[in-house]
Amino acid sequence: MGESVFKGVEMVGTSDQSFSHAIEVAVKRARQSLRDLSWFIVKEQRGGLQQGRLEYQVTLEVYFKLEAESGDKAAD
Amino acid sequence: MGESVFKGVEMVGTSDQSFSHAIEVAVKRARQSLRDLSWFIVKEQRGGLQQGRLEYQVTLEVYFKLEAESGDKAAD
Amino acid sequence: MGESVFKGVEMVGTSDQSFSHAIEVAVKRARQSLRDLSWFIVKEQRGGLQQGRLEYQVTLEVYFKLEAESGDKAAD
Amino acid sequence: MGESVFKGVEMVGTSDQSFSHAIEVAVKRARQSLRDLSWFIVKEQRGGLQQGRLEYQVTLEVYFKLEAESGDKAAD
Amino acid sequence: MGESVFKGVEMVGTSDQSFSHAIEVAVKRARQSLRDLSWFIVKEQRGGLQQGRLEYQVTLEVYFKLEAESGDKAAD
Amino acid sequence: MGESVFKGVEMVGTSDQSFSHAIEVAVKRARQSLRDLSWFIVKEQRGGLQQGRLEYQVTLEVYFKLEAESGDKAAD
Amino acid sequence: MGESVFKGVEMVGTSDQSFSHAIEVAVKRARQSLRDLSWFIVKEQRGGLQQGRLEYQVTLEVYFKLEAESGDKAAD
Amino acid sequence: MGESVFKGVEMVGTSDQSFSHAIEVAVKRARQSLRDLSWFIVKEQRGGLQQGRLEYQVTLEVYFKLEAESGDKAAD
Amino acid sequence: MGESVFKGVEMVGTSDQSFSHAIEVAVKRARQSLRDLSWFIVKEQRGGLQQGRLEYQVTLEVYFKLEAESGDKAAD
Amino acid sequence: MGESVFKGVEMVGTSDQSFSHAIEVAVKRARQSLRDLSWFIVKEQRGGLQQGRLEYQVTLEVYFKLEAESGDKAAD
Amino acid sequence: MGESVFKGVEMVGTSDQSFSHAIEVAVKRARQSLRDLSWFIVKEQRGGLQQGRLEYQVTLEVYFKLEAESGDKAAD
Amino acid sequence: MGESVFKGVEMVGTSDQSFSHAIEVAVKRARQSLRDLSWFIVKEQRGGLQQGRLEYQVTLEVYFKLEAESGDKAAD
User: Fold this and answer.
1) Where are the alpha helices (DSSP H) in chain L?
2) Could you give the CA distance from residue A40 to residue E47 in angstroms, rounded to a whole number?
């Protein structure tokens, strides 16, 4: 009835293809364990340069809905 | 002894009444699973407007104390 | 393979000795439960003054690597 | 499908009652001319103190949906 | 002569394809009503996750040149 | 009666004389179409260097009062 | 004739009722010693959670007018 | 040797001439009561528009040196 | 009950030894005149390099509790 | 052992294709003269709109490792 | 061809006349060695107060175009 | 004569001992090639955790004075 609670989790995805792919990598991983993924915010875009290769790194804050019952642990 | 460790968790509470109520909703939910809730910071106040109704949304960072023993998992 | 995912956790360490020690306190505690600690960022340095004693408080964002398999729960 | 455009408008509402009321004042005014109000963000909360009275001032960024047809003028 | 005046308008474009496409959606819409579009700044990149689909959302500040004559209304 | 609503509009004024003059250029232009200009904030000061000449550019957020009646369109 | 000087003072008000009340507590205290209180800005909203009770804490920057004569000491 | 302490005070100077003059107004006022003025930072530049006149307002943080002896009161 | 008011004062401590020592220098000085010092925040860490020597400079916001009675002057 | 020094250089890459390409343009150019490119941060994404064409502009901070010997000039 | 690369350099100009003059001092100096100066951003305005005199200090980020050929060294 | 120009250079120093040592490492390296080092600002403190060891990383902006004659190249 209008009251709900979401939890935000900071995740960093990396990819050697693109920033877009790095976001997909992180979101896909988050979905493996987060039931009710709701939205995310891009917080930082970085690149690592190692042995001539570019690694794309994106920091996201990912939000998912907490169930009212005690199944989800907010503290985690 | 002077040494202690706290963990911060980002939570978003929503309410159709007020920002104050949205904070209470999030804090109440956090207390169900967090044993030693210590303080919180208001990070953002937003509103959603759907079908003529206002939904208040408050993003909090909630901090609680980690026990020295391994009962709490910092990684979660 | 180029794809990996990290999770960030906000922790506050306190010490009555120094900011450096407060960081060590938080990092040591994080390592008890986080298998693959990778890097951290200092977000805030504060001090509490109680009964004539100084307590150093450092807020860190600590990052660790998530395993590809489902052993780690990103949602926590 | 899946493409839409929103426009953000900065508004400041004032009230001699409370910050909550100042938000309602601004949102109500926005609705008189904005057909499809979607969400808002609280950007600043200030107070003016004049002749012993407190005036609450809240700066919002209010977002509404632009119609695909040319009825709405994005430039305004 | 050296004197000119620009106006900034905040717009949010969404797309189910990519952030790049969401920017194009917003810029294309802006051009329908803004005669002299000059530059834009990316202010935020978010994602909405609904029913298993990712929606890309980009907030832009779009700037266009105001004519010296009264044709454009700065107040809008 | 204590309730009023203001709207903020972002404007960029340019001048080849000085930052002060660039502000005056933007404020003068705003007054041509904004009836009840109330205050402004300097958000950014930049310079363009073209063909050996300096162009001063100032970004302002200009606020004006909206009439209670429907004469002003908040959405614009 | 158009020249005046204000001084800003940072204050934190606390209340076990609400953020609104915490602001009133700080403003009321400021008025006991500040003659010409002019405006304030809300800088931070926090909560302390002790023994099951919520304490609301609001950080304000409060501004008051300095008299031209030497009655007020700017340095304080 | 090598140890000194400075105190920062926030001041707002206003002028109907220019931002430069508003700074001079605040600095001049600060010097009437602050013995050892050392440096200042410009924090904000605003303008008030009243009855067709522009008032320039500059917020400064002004720093001055505290004497080692108890002559200056840090708490003020 | 539950109502209290704190005041924040910005101080800069310097030392030719370390940032830690510069903080102690400022806190020690603050305690000479502030009765009820409660907490501080580190706002900036800088270094001055003069004649081959490094001077450490730390900017703190120091908070202390105001007495309910009129003994303390909030305006200072 | 364990001591190294990096230098950060701000670069803006432009492209008429995409933000991704603008980053590659800047990184490629940086590599022509920087021997030990290590990582970069995306600081701003802008677009220029000229004669109906979109130009993508990305501001990066690029970091590279300084050799211990005097070959590299930190001051440059 | 649409691809170009710019480099940003942070400079601080000082003057005992005004902030405007301090900017000119820095820009003039930059032009002595930078061939293709393009734009600058004002990042900070400070003042030094020494022996009763005011010194104006302006921090700029100055951008200039890098030649495609290896004449300019990006690393510097 | 009151006019001088400084240049800022971003540097990252690392150490396996402490943040203080990482700063010394960067400052010492900067002095090898920068003649007139004047001041620095601590911009970020991070830690890398590799194979059970902590590496301290400090990002500084280091400022040095440019000579009036053409000996120093501002563009570098």
Assistant:
1) 19-33
2) 5
Residue scoring higher pLDDT (A15 or C69): A15
Residue in H1, H10, H74 closest to I33 by CB: H74
- Measure CB to CB from residue B11 to each of A2, A10, A74 and give the nearest one: A74
Contact L12 J6 (CB under 8 A): yes
pLDDT value at position G1? 47
G8 to chain I, closest Cα gap in Å = 9
CATH of domain C6-66: 3.30.1660.10
Residue K69 has pLDDT above 60, yes or no: no
Query: Binning pLDDT at 50, 70 and 90, where does residue H12 land?
Result: very high
CB-nearest to L54 from C27, C41, C42 is C27
In chain D, where the domains are located: 5-66
Does the beta-carbon distance from L49 to C39 stay under 8 Å? yes
Q: Which residues in B have their CB inside 8 Å of a CB on C?
A: 2-10, 61, 63, 66, 70, 72-76
ipTM beyond 0.85? yes
| pTM of the complete model | 0.92
Question: Using an 8 Å Cβ cutoff, are G65 and G29 in contact?
Answer: no
* Residue E76: closest CA among J32, A39, F64: F64
In the three-class reduction of DSSP (H, G, I as helix; E, B as strand; rest coil), residue G33 is classed as helix
**Superfamily of B5-65 according to CATH:** Flavin-binding protein dodecin (3.30.1660.10)
- Measured CA to CA, the distance from residue G24 to residue G11 in angstroms comes to 12
B70 pLDDT higher than 60 = no
User: CATH fold of D5-66, please?
Assistant: Dodecin subunit-like (3.30.1660)
**What residue of K is the nearest CA neighbor of F54?**
K39
Which chain E residue's Cα is nearest to J44? E42
